[in-house]
Amino acid sequence: MSKRLPLQFRVLYRQFLLRVVDLEALSMQADVTQLLGQFAGILILVSAFRTVGFLWLVGRPDLSSEAFLNFAMQEALSFIAGTMLIVGLLTVVSWDGIFPDRRDAMVLGPLPVKPGTILAAKLAASVALLGIAVVALNFGMGLVLPVVTGGTLLGILRALFAWWFTMAVAAVFLYGGVLAVQGWTALLLPRRRFLQFSALLQLAAFALFLAGWIFQPSLADMAGKPGHPEGRWPACWFLCLALQLDGRLPPHAAWLARRAWIGLAISMAAAGTSLLLCYLRTMKKTIEEPDLLPGGARMPMRWGDGLTTAVVQFSLRSLLRSKQHRVMYAFFLAITFAIGLSTLRDLLLGGTQTLAPGFLMATQVMICLSVLGVRSVFSLPVSLKANWMLQITQVRPPQDYIAATRRAMLVMSAAPVWLVVAALSLGFRPWNAVLEHLVVLALLASIMTDLCLMNVSKIPFACSYLPGKSNVQYVFWAFAAGFVPIATQIAHAEMAAFARLRWLVVMLVTLMALAVALRMFNRSRSKHAVLYYEETESEVITTLGLSGMVMQD
Questions:
Q1: Residue 522 pLDDT
Q2: Residue 295: enclosing H or E segment and its boundaries?
Q3: Cα dihedral angle (55, 251, 260, 127), rounded to 10 degrees?
Q4: CA distances from 210 to 164, 184, 333 (A)
Q5: Could you give the CA distance from residue 180 to residue 274 in angstroms, rounded to a whole number?
Q6: What's the distance, CA 526 to chain centroid?
Q7: Which residues lie across from 281 on neighbouring strands?
Q8: Inter-axis angle of helices 191-214 and 65-93, to 10 degrees?
Q9: DSSP bridge pairs for 507
Q10: Residues of the chain with confidence (pLDDT) below 50
């Protein structure tokens, strides 16, 4: 079947599929198939756990038929919202992936390749990635729930069609909406302004998708009439669309299904028009205008002495100018602030609350995750120009550069999260416990920063990257199964310490001693360190074991 497609399309599709996610940013031995396999494995396990939990609950003998249907619909709404979240995050991670970049314009421009062929190959590669995500997340519930609720064979087939068609069009709706925003922004703004505005668009998109998933209404809110607040949530639209296709939609909710059809049509039309216009009008601008923009002549904010300010400003500007780093930074911050959004939702619904272990654990996870995320972003270089510039201008001892790197990590990771937690803490009481918790978080941020910088003697974004060191699947499950339970226990211990002054003093003194010890250890090590700008593989000597055989002979 694939051999019937044009050769140019097949070649370009394979190349664009390898580039749909930036391999320099997310590399597993430089093999995209391993990355996609590990990504799909995480979603499959999440789907399997949710499906097993659903079967266990619906198998209870005391569950009435009405309660069963309500529970099934709530699970369907949750999976629709989860699918839209995953599709939205993937679309932002592969930001600009469907539009022609400088490499496409320089390599494919002189060749006899039609822009339509390039567009079709890029679309096919992006759809393949989204298809893997949708199928992996829904493979369990997408088979079990239609079988459980379908009844007859015809009902099961109809429910299967309704589920998978709804998931597909929900993904197309969200993907098309993001493409339309990118395309029309690229058309209306000069390329330089578009590159600057892309950073804000990516952060806003991450925040919007996560906020939509966290603040989605429950099934109890689905009984409204036109104009009811649930009409703002696309997940509700597509749940009603699935019920309409399955023949179970109540008449009073038909307006929500109509919104799904209208939204899908508008999204596809806007995305298709913007893509065609972009491929006809932006190829020339892509070649002529630079990707990295020069900074203004304004005076930078002071972060310490001259060297420290230079390193921090270099890190901040590198992050804002580079699409690759910006996406990764936004991804980690989005997950971090999603935890804060869930806390904000509880505050908005319940008002001022008493400080609880759940809030303590969530804020600890936020601080640690932000530091780990920024540490991983720091490892990726921006360009060789920065590498050589810093090498030839190194006139200060290495410990000064390492101290500046620590300051940059604190400014970009711990400080924003700590300020957000301080703002969220205004809704909790008692005040003394809130202030004590903020002190604990500051010490934890210092500890995590020094732990992440142990044996690190390089400047952010200025050292070459050696792929093949990360494993997304192992890191994800290690964090979920290891760190979260530990943070829960620490939160309960911290809560108990707030009630006893002696325990609180012991806890604060212990954390402070650990923070000071790590800081002194890193400063002592940095005095004898040598900055490195090239990351190389360690040499491994493999022996054949022939010495013993020679002696025996």
A1: 93
A2: none
A3: 40
A4: 23, 23, 11
A5: 6
A6: 33
A7: none
A8: 160
A9: none
A10: 23-30, 224, 297, 553
> Does the bond joining 430 to the residue before it have cis omega, within 30 degrees of 0?
yes
Token pair in block for residue 310: 């230079």
Q: Output b/e per residue, 319-343; b: 16+ Cβ within 10 A.
A: bbbbbbbbbbbbbbbbbbbbbbbeb
Q: What value, to the nearest 5°, has the Cα angle with vertex 231 and ends 229 and 234? A: 125
**Which pLDDT score is estimated for 162?**
95
Q: What are phi and psi of 227, to 5 degrees?
A: 95, -5
Amino acid at 249: L
Kindly give the residue spans of alpha helices, DSSP state H, lying in 109-140. Answer: 115-138
Residue 429 β-bridge partners: 354
Q: What gap in Å lies between CA 216 and CA 542, rounded to an integer?
A: 57
Residues 81 and 73: their CA atoms lie apart, in Å, by 12
253, 243 contact by CB (below 8 A): yes
Token pair 């074991």 is at which residue?
545
Q: How does 431-450 read in b/e, with b if 16+ C-beta sit within 10 Å?
A: eebbebbeebbbbbbbbbbb
Three-state DSSP string of 344-373: HHHHHHHCCEECCHHHHHHHHHHHHHHHHH
What is the per-residue pLDDT for 30? Answer: 43
Tokens of residue 333, six digits? 């911050």
Give the separation between CA 165 and CA 244, rounded to whole angstroms.
12
Q: Which residue has the tokens 């949710």?
A: 50
**What is the token pair recorded at 392?**
């030839």
Closest CA to 332 of 441, 180, 472: 472
Say how many CA atoms lie within 13 Å of 182 toward its Cβ: 27
Secondary structure of residue 553 in the 3-state scheme: coil
**How far is it, in rounded angstroms, from Cα 221 to Cα 77?**
12
Give pLDDT, residue 252.
82
Task: Specify whether the CB–CB gap between 324 and 202 falls below 8 A.
Answer: no
Residue type, 163: W
For residues 519-539, one letter each, b for 16 or more C-beta atoms within 10 angstroms of the residue's C-beta and e for the rest, the string is beebeebbeebebebeeeeee
Q: How many CB atoms lie within 10 A of CB 145?
A: 23
| C-beta separation of 142 from 320 below 8 A | no
Which of 179, 104, 170 is CA-nearest to residue 137?
170
Instruction: Give the pLDDT score at 24.
Output: 44
Neighbours of 207 (CB within 10 A): 16
Strand, coil or helix: 343? helix
Q: Report how far residue 553's alpha carbon sits from residue 543's, in angstroms, rounded to the nearest whole number.
A: 19
Q: What is the pLDDT of residues 238-264, one digit of tens each?
A: 999 999 999 988 888 888 899 999 999
Q: One-letter amino acid identity for 186?
A: A
d(CA 317, CA 304): 17
E strands within 405-503? 428-429
